[in-house]
């Protein structure tokens, strides 16, 4: 990690580590900035109750090979929530699960997770994701556990 970090000088590159912010900071030159804390999580036996979307919202699913993208469209046509998932031979990974600020607290993030989970081919595969601090609290309520802190750093634009 240290050698890679010293070799990168351009902005907008990220280095990520399953470890603490301090562990990552100690491996990086001063030009790197630590990003907000994240958590590497796994759903051991997470069960998601199927819920209907609020009135006027609709779900769209798009698949391309092992990747599925779920989008919740608001009544006004705006993107209210979205996320992606990909399945490898032995893992199912969720990524970029996000709900727009004006549409939070309506169950849309859970609806995205449920929609993406329908794309799983192997129910035995562990489900993994990286969560923000806010996301960690939500996923914990859904049965997810933290496997490790997940640190990230980037060289900022000047």
UniProtKB/TrEMBL annotation:
InterPro entries: Acyl_CoA_acyltransferase, GNAT_dom
Keyword tags: Transferase
N-acetyltransferase domain mapped to chain residues: 22-158
Protein known as: N-acetyltransferase
Gene3D superfamilies, per the entry: 3.40.630.30
Species this chain originates from: Rhodanobacter glycinis
Any GO MF annotation of the entry: acyltransferase activity, transferring groups other than amino-acyl groups
